[in-house]
Give the backbone structure.
Amino acid sequence: SSVTDINKDRADASARLYNCKAYYDFETMLNEDKPDSVHICTPHFLHVPMAVSALKRGINVLCEKPCALNCQELETLRKAQDESIANFGVCFQNRYNESVTAIKDILDKKVYGDVLSMRGFVHWCRNEDYYNDSWHGTVEKEGGGVTVNQAIHTQDLLRYLIGSDMKCVTAHTFNDHLKNVIEVEDTVHAIFNYENGVTALFNATTAFSDNM
């Protein structure tokens, strides 16, 4: 087993913590360590190229969200997955919270009947200091704001609990909080219509005063 980080101090510290080897280059680690699987925890714009590199070598991938920045990247990832003997997964750990598994069981068994509608709210706080790096808040490297970063887990839970693919989306995004700091949205309001007829109302923002 091994850890990889372009920051040598971080890589060395993690290697000491987990008693494994430190690498400072991802490709070198794949070639030398030949792992069975990798967990990709890098900035968003690196997710697809790193995942594709691993999949081409037959290495299983667990990737932090989002899996891709845009539709073109997503197609590249899907092609690599189709051509690989390895598996690819995205980390949506909230599906395994005790409360979520209990609700999922109730809904699947239709204890109270069919799902008619759902709503999801994410009201968090991200101030200017959160974006003091080279990639957060940028279209090119983060790929979006609250929609693909903080609130993506709630979107996933809506689909997971409703148990249906999405049919269409009507959405509006805004930058209300940090207009001169970030290029991406800090607020989104959407209506999700699912194939099974359920409608979900979705509202998320990082412009609130606290993490609710």
